[in-house]
Amino acid sequence: MLAAVVAYELARRAIHPSLPVALRHAHDLLALERSLGLAWEAPLQHAFAPVAPAFAVVYLAAQFGATGLFFLWLWRNERASYPRFRNAFLVATALALALQARFPVAPPRLVGLHDTVASLAHVSVGRVTDPLAAMPSLHAGWAVGVGVGVWRRSRVFAIAYPAIVVLATLVTGNHFVLDAVAGAALMGVGFAAMRVNWLKRGATLAPATRGGAVR
Question: Is residue 137 within 8 Å of 169, Cβ to Cβ?
Fold first, then answer.
């Protein structure tokens, strides 16, 4: 998984989106959310202002820290599932990078929302991540993937963790609601691709197994 993180960082640094284009896309996305009644970012940021520092910490720690711990746990406790989850995350991440390259979107904090991470944690998110790649949210997608991975062990955590991470992305002004929806959807595509691959492998091995060729 470390190699995947390095590849992700190299790929996103190779993408040089135009700020005016990304800002225009952000305004278009916000207009779409308003038409759908999903423009929740500003109300949520206001409602959770008293606990904004906690959400800043969640935002900074979740994507690589918590996801890395999840894969370490998976390797130690569910090793048979490790390749499937690794590959699903890789597929979702590759699709996200392709979408970010084709459709750069500035985050809400660049179109009117307060940057709570910078003001409360004194960390500029733009220094550690692509500031013009809000769509889709890999924070949300990876958090959903972690939730799927721990579902059998703790359904409470499997639901609570992605919900808290998504809320953190909205409260901190780093993602739109539709960014989170798109990130979760791409994670679903990643798992679907792995399921199709698993079914194909099973269909290939079954005849040989029945015939006794494989022992």
Answer: yes
